[in-house]
DNA sequence: GTAGGGTTAG
């Protein structure tokens, strides 16, 4: 046994036969651990990992704390629970306490740091990687994919060149990274250079190409890889990705063609059936989703009825289809019929009732659901807002934060619109005596800011400060928004700094977006760009949108191009950035550039939405 | 117990 283990170790260090090795090693490891580890400890470890896999982290921790004997596997399992939840401080605490760390302990903590956004974490992860006493290929792959996921391809490539045995996993990570940055050519080139590709290589390439709107390239490569390949089993996932990609763009016919290319065979055929090229659940789900996207609920249902094996996602897709066309009866019928509804199923039903004006049922389901998440709250709050039940929305908004759920931009946009009837909101606010906490203050300030009543928002903020009510990061989003609307550059900067210095609130991406907005609106575009470059966050839609908005007002094509390209990369299907850029070029008489934008839009199959004009903006 | 890839909800 020991000799065999040694041989496998050597193979591993040379990176030969990754997958067989890993599966071999897993079974072997469990055999050896079972031999050496006392049975009680062995079973306790199993239980911890089971609890973590089923999301019962606190139970796992209780068991961990109660154990009087632990080995490194115990520590690592417990750590992995925190890593999964991105609770990095707790993971680190455990890591620092482990009596005997092994490579897995190091790999775990490093992967934790790299999976958090923000360069501070990346640097810490890298520091640990440099410090670790011994590395295996997982360590290298973790760091390379970590850099790639954070868009830092320079470092990723440098490590790729430096690693002792470059392998297919790190190549796949690089492909993903290139495509996150929109670098299609490099991704395709690297893909072609991989000596022995596996199914994940093709899948990484496919999903990236689809995200970048390069459906033609994706289709070509997919068919190239399929030719002369009789073990086509691995291709199904790639087909599924492209089918879904066509669906996103409403190209149902192309999707259906691909779907029909996969042999229609369902059910068991006894031996090694998994490796055969045939439709699986995901293929059916993806095709169904294409129909749902275009509102063709009949065709979707046809597929649903033909499926022999349905999973939760099949049910959810079908339910969301009925919700979309407001057939709540059928939606809830399926919900009742389905074997085990998950959080997503509940959320679909709740948002369905909420959107269709049945707040009572929406709230009923909401109260009954077992595991609420942020989207559950957002769905029901959005429902109250759309149905003009403002008090209800604000009440839920408060309740949500009392239960420790942190609002995001979806929540905020509902709650800001809630203050749509600003006079009503004001009355409600003044009448609230008992329940006026920081959250209601936030809602009110946000309401003023949203309606461009900047001085009212800032006044209220000052009053709040005088009353010694501690503002939160949400308060500052509204305050900064108010400054943006009122064109108060200096005030905005001052508030941004005061938030950090006086209140110790770390700026989030929303605050940066506001700051960029403030500067860009006043034409300080270089300063706005400097802010973007200085952020630890990867700029998102709001940030680039703010910059683009400023560019438009101040007719700055140079920065507009940068912002529009970034937006197109983030949301290739949205027509707004194309139209904006087109109009700017047209205004300046740069017709060649304008035409290029129009062609690009056509190539990406983006439909111009009503409400945007080619001529006037 | 650690690294890369496919479908669904606000």
UniProtKB/TrEMBL annotation:
InterPro entries: E_motif, PPR_At4g14850-like_plant, PPR_rpt, TPR-like_helical_dom_sf. It comes from Stylosanthes scabra. The keyword Membrane does not apply. The gene is PCMPE10_1. Signal peptide: none annotated. Keywords: Repeat. The keyword Lipid biosynthesis does not apply. This is Pentatricopeptide repeat-containing protein, mitochondrial. PPR repeats lie at residues 71-105, 136-170, 235-265, 280-314, 342-372, 373-407, 437-471, 472-507.
